[in-house]
Each structure stands twice: as structure tokens, then as C-alpha cells.
Amino acid sequence: MVQELFDRASANLNNELPFVLYRKPNEAVLNGVFQKDNQIYSVVDFSETGFVFAPFDLGSQPILLKTDEIIKAPIEYKGISLPIVDEISLLNESEKADYIKLITKALKVIKDGELDKVVLSRKIEINDEVSPINLFKNLLDIYPKAFCYLWYHPKVGTWIGATPEILVKSRGRQFTTMSLAGTQSSKEFLKPKWTKKELNEQQVVTNYILETLKDKVVSLKASDVASVEAGQLWHLRTEIKGVFKPGKFGEVLRALHPTPAVCGTPLANAKRFIAENENYDRSFYTGFLGELNFSTELARNKNRRNQENSAYRSVVKNSELFVNLRCMQISKIAISIYVGGGITNDSIPESEWNETVLKSNTMFRVLNHKLR
């Protein structure tokens, strides 16, 4: 059954028709959404239904894949574990001088008081020809705890990724979001020891989310900070749950995106610094993607003996959206890998560079595996 899903995706690629394949974290189901025409449909107010693919800058409208056909299939996890790519430092090295210079400029602006934090990213370009579907299969095997996807639209391009971060998950008016910050390499059986810089960075993100949502919700609660493992990386995570006001889901989304975890604080100043200094278009990197307003039918009566009341059912709208981290864009002749990190007053340029090298290995592992 799962091979039929891959075959259908391959046919859509050949016929230049949009689709997305995705597997949610820790699930053994592969989902496919297939659109029957090649038109670009946009999200206006997030009341629409479909698979949404949103850019970093919501000044550009998010793209909506129509759910003309949805296919699900059980998928087996093969449990592949790959080492760090030996050539990873060399593959990154050409970008180092420019990125260090960018970090140094950001630190000066932070010391001048215009910024508390800014997230700076870069793009690594590799001339190579790959099969998106084969690459996606490798991704599924390597990263079972991540949201793994392959997204294609003939008028936009092909993206693939494995992200650990939920932007928001909703069921009716109840929702869950998270703040995720800090990055350390995963060492077997050892939990990370977090620095003051990393702990502060995490708290900044949490505080921002709580503050920006308070006028759009009727309840809000944050969990304790926890260390979570994603692939070969550790992160700090705080889970935030609440109930949004009627009709306010779109406002909640626009308030959450972009968070300080992918942009910085103050938000407007950080966005301006990124636009003026990164010198490339992030496009869908650090945007978000996932199921938007998918319907679930619920029986109101759980007592099976009462068959008369069992006929009454309610439909609940669910959304499950993920931040587009650890991703790459694939063209016919090249691959672009996107990585970044948060810069604060405590940042050391060389250490921040090393963090992006570490993050780039998420995608380099997948590319390296396809050559074996």
C-alpha cells in the first residue's frame, strides 16, 4: 500500500501536479494529499481547509494544497542511524567568513540596544541531482521523531524536511504550541548541560508567546522547561496550552509566526535586520506547514447501548502546523540547505557558526546516505 502512495507521488511529479507526502512525529502512517490541477491557491484568513505551506514572511500569502484526494498508508520504520558526515565542515566552510561577519554586525546592534536577539540564517548550495522521493524515503527512516515531508508544486518548487517543532496544534478551540530554543549535539545516554545563554534564549521565546497570545485566548498555561531530543540534537522546550476566542484562530497564527525562535526580539527590529542583512530570501525556510482545518467527526454519545443518541455526531476542526526547520529545496540541478541560529548578547561568533554546522548535518546525513 505504501508503495502505491510513492508511485502516485512519482506520477504527480511527472505530470507536474501538486502534492505533499508527510509523516507526523512518532507515527507509523504516511499521508498523501494530492491536488488535481496545477493552480496556486492562497490562504487568506486561515479559515480555509487544506495543507498549508507558509513562508517566513507572511507578507507573501501562504499556499494551500487542495485536498482533492487524501491517501493514507501504514509505513514501517527501519531504524537507520547515520554518523556525522566527515566532509561536513568543508561543505560549510565557504560560508564561514560571511556568516561570522554577519554575527559580529548583529552583536554590535544588540550591544547598542536595538535588539535583544536576532536569528540569523544562511543557505548552503550543492550542485547535485537527486530523486526527491528516494531522498524522502531516507528521511523517513532516519528521523522517526520528526515531522517529515516532501512538498511539491510545479509553479513553486520542491521542498523536503524533518522538523522537530510544532507551531500550533488545535482541536476545536483548544490549542497547544511550544517554545523551542537552544541546540546541543546528542551524546548517547547523556543529557545536555545548558548554558546561561541557552536558558535565557529559551525563556525569551516563552515569555514572548505568553505575552502575544494573552488578548486572543480565554486561557493559557505553560509547562516547565524540558530537554528534548530530535535526531542527533538536543533542544530546550516549553509546552504552552490554551483555548482561543471564537473565530480567532487566524489571529493566533499570525501572532505566533514568526516567533523569536526563528526571528528575534523586538520582533519588528529583528525582521528588519534580517531583511537588510541576510542577503538572501528565506522563502519557506522558518515558515510553517501542515494540516489546516481538517475535519474529524465525533460521536456525542459514548454509550454504545444507546443507539438512538449515537446518531448525533459533531464535526471538530483540527489543525497541526509545524515550523519549517531542518529543510532543503531541491531543483533539477542543485540542492539548497537552510540553517540558522539565535544571536544574543552572550553569543560567541565561532560557537554560533559551529551550531549551524551541526544543524546542517540533519540534511547532509540524508544526502550522504543516498550515495551509499
Short description:
The chain is 29% helix and 36% strand. It is an alpha+beta fold. Helix 4 crosses helix 9.
How is this structure best described in words?
With 372 residues, the protein is α+β, with helices and mostly antiparallel strands. It has a single domain, classed as 4-Layer Sandwich (Anthranilate synthase), CATH 3.60.120.10. The protein has 9 helices and 19 strands. Strands 3, 4, 5, 10, 11, 12, 13, 14, 16 and 17 form a 10-stranded antiparallel sheet that branches. A 9-stranded antiparallel sheet has the order 6-2-1-8-9-18-19-7-15, with helices on both faces. A hairpin with a 2-residue loop joins β10 and β11. α3 packs antiparallel against α9 and α4 packs across α9. It is globular and about 55 Å long. The model has no long low-confidence stretch (mean pLDDT 88).
Topology record:
Layout: H1 2-14, E1 19-23, E2 29-34, E3 41-42, E4 50-54, E5 63-65, E6 69-74, H2 88-93, H3 96-111, E7 117-127, H4 132-142, E8 147-153, E9 157-163, E10 166-171, E11 174-185, H5 196-213, E12 217-222, E13 226-230, E14 233-244, H6 249-256, E15 264-265, H7 267-277, E16 288-299, H8 307-310, E17 313-323, E18 327-330, E19 334-344, H9 349-370
Antiparallel strand pairs: 1-2, 1-8, 2-6, 3-5, 4-5, 4-16, 7-15, 7-19, 8-9, 9-18, 10-11, 10-17, 11-14, 12-14, 13-14, 16-17, 18-19
